[in-house]
C-alpha cells in the first residue's frame, strides 16, 4: 500500500461530511457579501435638486398620488352619487301636478271620489317623513255596477290638499305600452288599499311616499314611490 495515504485510515467519514458542509456554507456567505457590496448605494445627492429646494417622494401602487387623485376626484364622487340616485329613482313614477280629471273636453267620467273631511280633528298632521319625503293619498273611483272594468282617473293629493292632480289611465289601444305607472298604483290600491270616506261606496284609497320637484316654466312634478305603501293616515 502507498504510505502517502496511510493517514486516511484515521479519518472518519462523519468528520469529512462536517468539513464539507462548513466549506459550502462559507462559500455562500462570501458570495452574498460580494453581491451586496457591488450594489450601488443611492443617496440624496444622486437626485436632481428641484427649483424650490423641496424633494417630493411618492409611493407606487394603490397608495400613489395618481391613484388617490383618480379614486377621490370630484368627478368620481359625482358619478357614485349619480349612480345611486339613478338606482333610487327606479322606484318612482312621475306625474305633473294640477292635471284636471277631464282632458278630452267631453263630459267627465261619472265616478265618485269624495273629499269628505269627517274626523278632521283626528286627522294626522304628518306632512313629511324623516327623510324629507311627503305622504300622498291616491284614491280610485267607485264605478257603477257593470262598469268596474273601466279605467278612470285617480285623484292624488297631500295633507291639506296643497298639491293635487289626477292620474290618467293609458289609452285602450296602448295598454301594452308604458302606462307611466298608472296600473302599478291601481294594483297596489286594489290589493292593499282601504275604503274611502264613504266606505267602499266612495272608492278605495292608499297612501304613498313621494316628493315634489318644482319647475320654472310649467306645472310641478310629483314623484311617487311604488316600491311600498306609506302607513295609513287619518286624512
What does this structure look like?
The protein is α+β, with helices and mostly antiparallel strands. The protein has four helices and seven strands, in the order αααββββαβββ. Strands 1, 2, 3, 4, 5, 6 and 7 form a seven-stranded antiparallel beta sheet that branches. A hairpin with a 5-residue loop joins strand 3 and strand 4. The longest helix is centred in the N-terminal third of the chain and has 26 residues. The termini are far apart. About 8% of the residues have low confidence.
Mean pLDDT: 74
- Shape annotation: elongated
Biggest β-sheet description:
7 strands, antiparallel
Q: For the CA atoms, what is the radius of gyration? A: 41 Å
Taken in chain order, the helices and strands follow as HHHEEEEHEEE
What is the rounded distance between the termini? 124 Å
Structural class: alpha+beta
Poorly predicted runs are 107-125
Beta percentage is 15-25%
Report helical residue fraction: 25-40%
Q: What count of helical segments does DSSP give?
A: 4
Report the strand count: 7
Amino acid at each position: 500500500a502507498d504510505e502517502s495515504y496511510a493517514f486516511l485510515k484515521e479519518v472518519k467519514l462523519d468528520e469529512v461530511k462536517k468539513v464539507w458542509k462548513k466549506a459550502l456554507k462559507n462559500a455562500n456567505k462570501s458570495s452574498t457579501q460580494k453581491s451586496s457590496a457591488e450594489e450601488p448605494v443611492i443617496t440624496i445627492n444622486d437626485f436632481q435638486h428641484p427649483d424650490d429646494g423641496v424633494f417630493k417622494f411618492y409611493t407606487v401602487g394603490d397608495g400613489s398620488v395618481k391613484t388617490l387623485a383618480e379614486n377621490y376626484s370630484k368627478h368620481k364622487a359625482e358619478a357614485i352619487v349619480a349612480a345611486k340616485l339613478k338606482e333610487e329613482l327606479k322606484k318612482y313614477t312621475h306625474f305633473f301636478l294640477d292635471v284636471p280629471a277631464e282632458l278630452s273636453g267631453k263630459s267627465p267620467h261619472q265616478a265618485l271620489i269624495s273629499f269628505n273631511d269627517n274626523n278632521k280633528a283626528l286627522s294626522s298632521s304628518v306632512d313629511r317623513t324623516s327623510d324629507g319625503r311627503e305622504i300622498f293619498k291616491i284614491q280610485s273611483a267607485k264605478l257603477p255596477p257593470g262598469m268596474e272594468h273601466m279605467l278612470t282617473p285617480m285623484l292624488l293629493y297631500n295633507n291639506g290638499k296643497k298639491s293635487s292632480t289626477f292620474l290618467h289611465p293609458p289609452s285602450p289601444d296602448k295598454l301594452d305600452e308604458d302606462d307611466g305607472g298608472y296600473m302599478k298604483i291601481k294594483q297596489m290600491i286594489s290589493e292593499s288599499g282601504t275604503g274611502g270616506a264613504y266606505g267602499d261606496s266612495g272608492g278605495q284609497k292608499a297612501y304613498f311616499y313621494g316628493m315634489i320637484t318644482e319647475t320654472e316654466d310649467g306645472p310641478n312634478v310629483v314623484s311617487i314611490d311604488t316600491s311600498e305603501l306609506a302607513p295609513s293616515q287619518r286624512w
